[in-house]
């Protein structure tokens, strides 16, 4: 008989399979088409590769823990190994997304720096991201091994909050800051152009957000909301310790959006593993995301203001400063992406960091993990939607295939 836990688990496997297909569709054109070989697309390809690895791990993890749990739990070293790789793949995927945000921040703030347009910079930033992904989860491996060796979960009371901060909080903060810098930079550029135009025409100008600023802001907000929505539930619940005794079906449902399956693992029985994972999975990416997006926003904003002021000076008219439509779009998009990120990854890591996952029913824990996978799927679709070149290429290939059929 299939219970609620298996239903949520099957749903999670379907979500991760969709992520696997989307990542492959996005990755192949970038690899095999030379015209897509630039820094932005290669970093996106890196994220797609990480998504393939992460989705594959999650599918295997769901199958082992959901359908072969009895035999799996008897193998101590295998459980420790999966505990480490669980945090590893989550960090790799989230930090890959943060790397794209930071790279965009550098491109907007330093448009004349050729180094940030070279492939060497692409490989350096991707290498740093991979290095952090392997190093940050090491305390999880050590802590779980110590507990299995000593048989005392209280030896590692900080791991839950640590995972919560590293996986959820830090990437979110970095994403917000980097996109904020991008937004204000673009905003400043728009203001300069608008001011020059107004001065040339001699018209009185009232500064406001341009349509480009509004679109950019909406996109950033959209991506951030998806990120929070997908990754927050399972990590918040885990960091808060709510997953202990949680029913299987609820655990699967929480885990599904992020694709991070954690039911039946030692992580949430330790008092410090939850906070540790909360820190590396949630806090660190959030901090980087916030910083990079903040820099982007303020840089764009300053650029828009300079352009608008110049145009007003030429025309001799006075200007009243207000957000342009482009600034509004950029800001909205940043906020949306950040909210999606936190909403998806926070619940399970917060629950683990708070130590409430011990004894949580499996269904409730799965439910906390569910939003993370969904949020990552939305982020992939968002990246594809705003990559007009690759999207147009795939559209042409699809239309051509339909005509052939």
TrEMBL record:
Domain of life according to the entry: Eukaryota
TM segment ranges: 6-28, 40-60, 80-98, 119-142, 162-186, 221-242, 278-300, 335-357, 363-385
Residue ranges annotated for the G-protein coupled receptors family 1 profile domain, each copy included: 22-297
Signal sequence, renumbered to the chain: none
Organism annotation: Adineta steineri
Protein name from the UniProt record: G-protein coupled receptors family 1 profile domain-containing protein
GO cellular component: plasma membrane
Subcellular location: Cell membrane
CDD domains xrefs: 7tm_classA_rhodopsin-like
Topology relative to the membrane: Multi-pass membrane protein
GO molecular function: G protein-coupled receptor activity
Classification via PROSITE patterns: G_PROTEIN_RECEP_F1_2
Keywords, alphabetical: Cell membrane, G-protein coupled receptor, Membrane, Receptor, Transducer, Transmembrane, Transmembrane helix
